[in-house]
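Researcher: Next sequence.
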Amino acid sequence: MRTHRPAHWKQSASPLKNKVSMPVRLTFVCHGATAATRAAAFPLDEPLEDRAMAKARALGRLLPRADWAWTSPALRARQTAEALALDASIHPALRDCDYGRWSGCRLADIERAEPDSVATWLSDPNASPHGGEALADLFRRVAAWMDETRRNDGRTIAVTHAAVIRAAILHLLDGPARSFWRIDVEPLSAIDLRWDGARWTLRYLSGSSRAGRDCDPIGGSRQPR
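Model: Next structure:
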């Protein structure tokens, strides 16, 4: 699996492709379920569950052909990309949010031990009481990567994390930060975006049949009031 190349790098293309501009399409795929997903915990760099690998292989047969394929550096994302049969390069901008000292802990346990810290984190996107990455920094990172990606003709498929996909949806809708908590992203769900030269549009969002059962641990059920 390759690492990130400079923004100007292009895949080899035929002379026709060099002359004809192709529509810009961006598909985000959330990695498969892990032990942390089941436990509603902040993730470590854990592997996929066995059945998640099987589900990803099945999904891979349904994905369109990618002109560009990227993955988060995390093991669970790289395993998902491989199971999807994507020849994906690693891009650090697709990494999960850094949850600092909360990584590996269940959200319910953190809420009991540090209720004020959790309340601050939920209400202030610039706060990072866990010592990791503030959500506002995550939003800027994802928006910058999307701005870079829209220069690539054809279809890009990016395997990443629920928090990154939620930030992407927030960016394309130009929504307020509090709306981040009102979006649930299931493992192996996907969203398809189009760039028309002026703006991103959301074409569709797909998810598994077990809606709400395998969502990320900091999804809509944890939104601040």
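Model: Residues 5-20, 209-213 have pLDDT under 50 and may be disordered. DSSP finds eight helices and six strands in the chain.
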